[in-house]
Specification:
Layout: H1 2-22, H2 25-46, E1 52-56, H3 64-76, E2 80-83, H4 100-112, E3 116-121, H5 128-132, H6 137-153, E4 158-161, E5 173-177, E6 183-188, H7 205-226, E7 229-232, E8 241-242, E9 245-246, H8 252-261, E10 267-272, H9 273-278, H10 283-292, E11 296-301, E12 304-306, E13 315-318, H11 328-337, E14 343-346, H12 364-385
Helix pairs in contact: 2-12, 3-12, 6-7, 10-11, 11-12
Length: 386
């Protein structure tokens, strides 16, 4: 018995000496824990490159597709919410959408499902009266200013808007077969170029420039006072006219012109990558220019394939984020390098297997895929820089 004890102690002493020389299980375990802790801190610092990753919830919180997307978003820890403003979400369907109680109620409805509603896309009180200069535009603009003030009071400080009266986002095909049979949206100007005019006839582009200037001069000074970021979205598609309605936000030069009408840190751009690529811009280069000027207030992270051979494009298709014309790694790197910390959401994603194409471009699984891809890019550029 004594011999066995003596042998055990001898072996234990030898093992302790070996561990001490080699770093040992105890020292090594402590070191691994420290490395793991450092890695967690680095991952936290690198996560999404400091950008507010978000999803669009068009159609409202009760929409079946959105209810599924909300569950996925919480599991992904992508809690930013982008949407229009529906008073019904606040239980006040007949109230004015610019009233503070409505806005606060909608924000709370999103909070109740674990989301942070922080960008309004498609604001109320900004319709054809303002964009076409019709009777009643001053009332619309006055309500828009009230809307801005109440949004800011509720903690929302970005408005994504467009200058496309009557005919907004347009596609000629919303179920084009993409990679592996996924469904994507596409556009071909030849299919709609000769459609009949709207009730407003053939409108000159100068008219829309005049109404845009009128709006900006009325609204931007008020936005400056409260710190509201106005992010103008490009025309989509970026063709000259559709049914007699001009598309003036269809070139980079025209955006530069718009930014000079009322120079302000709060007069900015929604960087919808697909549209600017289809205008002929090198997207990473444009991100660096406008980003360094503080003009990018909101981002639509999307990719496209140009098919017409002319720019601005008259024929194109959406793609998965990893297969279009844009260098998406360099785009994400550019956002990181200019210090963009605002909201970014995937846009115009494919409809994938097992989904009904009820919301072309905005189905849940495509958003899931896109956000994973975006998060990988963001971590890569962030850790590479550090």
């Amino acid at each position: 018995m004594k011999e066995n004890r003596r042998s055990f102690l001898k072996k234990s002493a030898g093992l302790t000496a070996t561990l001490a020389v080699s770093g040992g299980i105890f020292t090594s375990f402590g070191k691994d824990a420290k490395v793991a802790s450092t890695n967690r801190k680095l991952n936290g610092m690198a996560k999404d490159a400091g950008i507010k990753f978000s999803n669009a919830y068009f159609g409202g919180l009760k929409n079946a597709k959105n209810q599924y997307l909300i569950k996925l978003a919480r599991q992904m820890d992508v809690l930013g919410a982008v949407a229009g403003l529906d008073p019904g979400e606040a239980g006040m369907p007949n109230a004015n959408p610019w009233d503070y109680e409505v806005i606060a109620g909608v924000k709370q409805a999103y909070k109740d499902v674990g989301l942070d509603y922080h960008v309004v896309e498609g604001p109320p009180s900004l319709y054809s009266k303002t964009k076409l200069g019709l009777k009643g535009r001053d009332e619309e603009i006055a309500n828009f200013i009230i809307f801005m003030k109440n949004l800011k009071r509720a903690g929302i400080d970005v408005i994504c808007y467009n200058w496309m009266p009557e005919i907004s986002w347009a596609r000629t095909n919303v179920e084009r077969p993409g990679r592996g049979g996924a469904l994507v949206t596409a556009f071909d100007y030849d299919e709609i170029e000769h459609k009949p005019l709207t009730e407003y006839g053939d409108i000159p582009a100068e008219r829309l420039w005049g109404t845009l200037e009128y709006f900006l001069k009325a609204v931007v000074p008020e936005a400056e006072k409260i710190g509201m970021k106005l992010a103008l979205h490009p025309d989509d598609p970026q063709v000259p006219k559709i049914q007699g309605i001009p598309r003036i936000m269809n070139t980079v030069d025209n955006f530069d012109k718009m930014l000079k009408i009322v120079p302000s840190d709060y007069n900015g751009v929604t960087m919808c990558q697909g549209n600017f690529s289809l205008m002929g811009a090198d997207v990473p280069t444009l991100i660096r220019r406008w980003g360094n000027e503080g003009k990018i207030h909101f981002v639509h992270f999307r990719n496209v394939e140009e098919l017409s051979g002319v720019l601005p494009s008259t024929k194109f298709t959406e793609t998965f984020h990893d297969e279009g014309d844009i260098d998406m790694y360099q785009a994400m790197k550019a956002y990181y390098d200019v210090g963009f910390k605002g909201s970014m959401r995937p846009d115009h994603v494919p409809t994938m297997a097992g989904e009904e194409n009820t919301s072309p471009g905005y189905m849940a699984l495509g958003n899931l895929w896109a956000l994973g891809y975006m998060r990988g890019l963001a971590e890569s550029v962030s850790k590479e820089a550090k």
